[in-house]
Amino acid sequence: MQVDEPDQIGRYVFPNAGEPVRRLTASTSLALTPIKVCAARDEVAPLLAPPWMIDRVLPMMTKPALEASETSTAEGYATLVAGAGDVLIAMAVTNTHDIVAGGRVALIDDVAVFDQIWTHEAHRRRRLGSRVMRTLENVAVQRGAIRGMLVATEAGCSLYSTLGWRVYAPYTTAIVPMINQPGSTVRSSPAP
Ligand SMILES: CC(C)(COP(=O)(O)OP(=O)(O)OC[C@H]1O[C@@H](n2cnc3c(N)ncnc32)[C@H](O)[C@@H]1OP(=O)(O)O)[C@@H](O)C(=O)NCCC(=O)NCCS
Fold first, then answer.
1. Which of 31, 73, 135, 142 has the greatest count of CB atoms below 10 A from its CB?
2. Which of 93, 123, 124 to mutate to test the pocket of ligand 1 (most atoms within 8 A of CB)?
3. Which CATH superfamily is domain 66-145 in?
């Protein structure tokens, strides 16, 4: 899959650990092109040919029945939704017009994929992350989405667990460190 972002050229995604992962790592060693596998570290690590290495393991989470809900109001913040086509963005804005939280959802048939959920450090634990998630869930439901999925950080996992999301599988990322690329000394760290 082509990504074309500064820290990631593309990515390979596998639904489980198996021979295709082993064959791929034996035949290619491109940095900035991670392999992502819905499997645990212990299942993926033995399949990796050097210089491939495990970069991180994050939880993949799902919400099998998305539902519309009231988005609570937080004093001093407004919530905005923008976007066209199948990608929608929600953000929380202060009354001085600073964007202090946000996230996006991509709609693929009846599945909504939530991504890049964040709250500025100075505004955390004020329910803004919850509000962004509920806002995105509402627009996804309005657009016909039934199920939700995402890959979470540790903090994200705690947030999503309070909103009815459950861990579905570990999601392991393997990379080729940049140090193995000619002319480079920087180690790659691709996005989730
Ligand atoms: C994860 C993140 C978006 C949470 O945003 P937030 O606005 O602080 O979240 P909320 O205030 O809505 O949190 C609601 C509840 O979720 C849980 N929660 C949220 N962040 C948590 C954390 N860091 N640790 C433990 N629980 C957490 C708590 O139960 C919290 O309720 P409480 O404050 O009454 O205890 C924010 O910490 C963040 O931007 N982190 C860095 C980027 C990131 O990891 N994004 C997630 C990508 S998957």
1. 135
2. 124
3. Gcn5-related N-acetyltransferase (GNAT) (3.40.630.30)
